[in-house]
Amino acid sequence: MIWRHIWSRCSRDMGIDLGTANTLVHVRGKGIVLSEPSVVAVDRTTGKILSVGTQAKRMLGRTPANIEAVRPLKDGVIADFEISEAMLRYFIRRVHRRRALVHPKAVVGIPSGVTEVERRAVRDAILRAGAREALLIEEPMAAAIGAGLPVWEPAGNMVVDIGGGTSEVAVIALNGVVSGRSVRIAGDEIDEAIITFLHHEYNMAIGVATAENVKLAIGSAYPFEGDGEVVTVAAGRDLLTGLPRALEISAPEIREAIAEPVAGIVEAIRLTLETTPPEISSDIMERGIIVTGGGALLRGIDLLLAQDTSMPVRVAEHPQTCVVEGTGRALEDPDRFAEAFIPL
What we know:
Blueprint: H1 2-10, E1 14-18, E2 22-27, E3 31-37, E4 40-43, E5 49-52, H2 54-57, E6 67-70, E7 73-74, E8 77-78, H3 81-96, E9 105-110, H4 116-128, E10 133-138, H5 139-146, E11 157-162, E12 167-173, E13 176-183, H6 187-202, E14 204-205, H7 208-218, E15 231-238, E16 244-250, H8 251-257, H9 259-274, H10 278-287, E17 289-292, H11 301-309, E18 313-315, H12 322-332
Parallel strand pairs: 1-9, 9-10, 11-17, 17-18
Antiparallel strand pairs: 1-2, 2-3, 4-5, 4-6, 7-8, 11-12, 12-13, 14-15, 15-16
């Protein structure tokens, strides 16, 4: 026991939010020490990793033929094992510095809907990247812990975590998920909806980075006063002439463009509520629904969910970091959250 305590003190044990869009790392006693895009630039001729994270993301859509900027995770799970492992090794070594003799313990948030094979792929990638032990926790559970919800109590709590690749809906009580649903409709699908809208309505092609910028600038899920005057400029390529083109678009247009994926998230919430026991439903009516993840920053998402569910809804204080904060708290207090970890 004494040696285990000393080992833990010497190690920079970490919680990891391994997201489709971004990877965040929380170190015990230090807080969040890393937040980088989950992007890797690879030389396809040699197989060499050229850059990882922010620098690699800048290359998306701008690389020569032999260099590819890839996101090795898709819909919240590993799509390219070797590149994911290389990315994780880079992040872990960057956080762990030179304490090579004491490998870190890692708690990793993963989507609730992944298969056993996908869970093992994440665990294996973390271990091969340099961790001495890898514990897995479902993202909605980690988000609820990070948002400060009392998940260990018998009363029900409901969390909606809208990430880049998946949206996680869960009703939680006694450190377990009572009812829940994981849908592969989230930030990436919203970006794709914007790309498709501009393609069909204006014969204009834009990249993923431009679509994300448009979403962040004027995206909304619910009408707000004067939104017709809120505009932004998107730059892309005219599909008829092949020439560069800049287009001014408004908030109502983008709200219409993303209505379908947003409706898919709302439907997942409705289906989860339908399978929730009546006693816990009354808890949720009293406590409300909390929204986390990057998608919680979509303007008016709380108002739309409140209207469609007739439940009180609030956005977490720091929605983008709830999952990684939750992994960190579970790491620091493993006895309280022992039942929240996924058995392998």
